[in-house]
Design goal:
Distance between the termini: 34 Å
Strand order of the largest sheet: 3-2-1-4-5-6-9
Largest sheet: 7 strands, parallel
Structural class: alpha/beta
Number of strands: 9
Number of helices: 7
């Protein structure tokens, strides 16, 4: 009997940690493959298998007998942490695109990835432009059902300190009551909410490529 399998990349990040907890607890998956470039703390947990691999050379298939239900991509960094624009783009653009192509080659039913509010390939901001280029590449990868989530500023614990994000969240806490209509998508969203929304998208796995704005993330993951 085939195992209902989920693959997750970026399992140690702010959203990835929340999603891992949901996947481990979920009866919908028999097996969770953690795809990472080095060992993670999840070794030995029920249902979890670690696949240590270079993202530029992901193995051809997740395993014999696996029913690849969903591939989740939670990878992400900042230009400061990456050290250069090129290094940032390798993580936030090239890895999700490579993973989506791998998911398509493996016959995954669904691919779910993380972008950013206001992402677009024509943006002047390197961050938003990189995210927009990633979206285009992921959507064109060939997975039958693709969801790209565009969260606003993230609330929740992080391993690294991000001053701009902390300041932004404090400002949003003051003005959020008046952020109605089209402005709702700019409200801060908790990492746990994003993780729940990712799981909800995989459950839906509607055909085609779908952009999920931050206000819809709040609804799906609330």
């Amino acid at each position: 009997m085939s195992k209902r399998t989920a693959v997750i990349a970026g399992s140690t990040g702010a959203i990835g940690r929340q999603l891992m907890a949901l996947l481990i607890a979920s009866p919908r998956f028999d097996k969770i493959i953690v795809l990472h470039h080095r060992p993670t703390p999840y070794a030995g947990q029920p249902k979890v298998e670690q696949l240590i691999a270079d993202f530029a050379a992901i193995p051809a298939a997740p395993g014999a007998g696996d029913d690849l239900v969903a591939v989740f991509c939670c990878v992400g960094t900042t230009q400061k942490r990456a050290g250069s624009t090129e290094a940032f783009q390798r993580v936030d653009r090239d890895i999700p695109m490579a993973l989506a192509r791998w998911a398509a080659a493996c016959g995954a039913r669904c691919f779910v990835g993380i972008s950013s509010v206001d992402a677009r390939a024509t943006a002047r901001s390197i961050y938003l432009k990189t995210k927009g280029e990633m979206e285009n590449g992921v959507a064109a990868a060939g997975v039958g059902s693709t969801y790209i989530l565009r969260p606003s500023l993230l609330a929740g614990e992080r391993e690294e300190y991000r001053l701009a994000e902390r300041v932004g969240n404090r400002v949003l806490a003051v003005i959020e009551p008046v952020m109605l209509g089209p402005l709702r998508k700019y409200r801060a969203v908790h990492t746990k909410t994003v993780a729940r929304a990712m799981l909800a998208c995989a459950d839906q796995h509607a055909p085609g490529a779908h952009i999920v704005e931050s206000d819809v993330i709040q609804t799906l993951g609330g």
